[in-house]
């Protein structure tokens, strides 16, 4: 069987990786070995963030297996395959060195999204999420993989997607129909066509884009100009959901999904052997090329060294060590300055937002009566503060990305690429930890109090004007004195009502101010904890990369010294061994190249 020959070739290459202590390449070949023996047909769903990849997978299997939404970004790949019962498990990454140690943790399928978010927040090295569903569309071996966005600000997400490209039987590039293909998308498509034999472009969201047919035609021209052979499938996940709910075949056809599924079935049929050959040929050849490059470098170092050559190599290594120290000082200063600036800016940002809310509180309470509008006022105040908290944490997340880029610029290029992406910062909810502001005490004005207030005000008016009119011969109680008393009594009553209203407004204003100050205190604590954790994570990641660089330089110095001290006999023997090994690897490399021409047998 062809699988026997392919597995034998992979095992031979894996043995060479183990002999040269390249466990990272060995782990990669183990994954390829599993793909060769697995009859499933893997289809990768790729694209930039927020293009509808997860929603597309959900629509194909008619189940919300992938976390989808406007503010949700796929962090780890999600594999969806057939199983008799619904199931879900989190798979941790294999170690870069040492034997494979995949850790599979079953989780309830209804909680899989929460478990993934918690694992990422805890810093667990997740490799992927695997979902099993009893779906007819998956029964014949179709396996879908929802991948992190490519071309995004996070280079590690792009690397995660590209690392599985060579394992795929087919690839669906998702770019919504609201706009034509971007330059980055066309560039990515051009790259993947060399690695994956079957590529198609899927354009969702046709239900919200009246001009989607024009966009499809423009994209078809772009593909022709870029010499990319790929079919285009315009689809609508919302129409697909409506068709499934109503069991309407006509509506399902309008969604575009039947044509897409038929394409996958026709492209996958009877092509497993051809795809397996291409998969093994590419990966084994690439692994062997890396091994042979390392051996050729070692072979060139086996020639007798002069004292001058050894001294130059040691000086170069020392220069690299000095450069690494300077780089370490630069990224530490950049990180320290950035964190201190972040503390100040975030605190000022939220203070400024709450001051604007306090100003609005003063304007509202200078006009409204808290006794009648308190419920609406409290709801508005909570909503405004919640928006301010979300905006502040959103800005903090943007600053996190910017600070990560600034620190990465201070590292060596190879170190910057290895810098891990930090988890997205989510807003806290301080309103749940702070008691709601209390409404002002009920300020009723009973009828008897109003009468007494009016009498007190009218008494002076009657007496004063009665005495004045008595000089004109009129009695104390006359029309003028009584009218003046009524007028002054009404004025006293209105003044008392205004006084009570102002007291209620002042109490409400003080309660709102205390509530806002309490929220500010909680948010400052949450942001400081978040920034402190960001500082620790970035410092640990950069420090780990710096230490790795120091170890590599130290090993280089030791190897240079050993090579200088090695005898001519030892060098000649090692050179013969390397040449023999290179001949063996060259033969193995030719066998790998013969795979694509169907000229290999067990």
UniProtKB/TrEMBL annotation:
<dbReference type="InterPro" id="IPR045063">
    <property type="entry name" value="Dynamin_N"/>
</dbReference>
<dbReference type="InterPro" id="IPR051943">
    <property type="entry name" value="TRAFAC_Dynamin-like_GTPase"/>
</dbReference>
<feature type="domain" description="Dynamin N-terminal">
    <location>
        <begin position="43"/>
        <end position="194"/>
    </location>
</feature>
<dbReference type="Pfam" id="PF00350">
    <property type="entry name" value="Dynamin_N"/>
</dbReference>
<dbReference type="InterPro" id="IPR027417">
    <property type="entry name" value="P-loop_NTPase"/>
</dbReference>
<protein>
    <submittedName>
        <fullName>GTPase Era involved in 16S rRNA processing/predicted transcriptional regulator</fullName>
    </submittedName>
</protein>
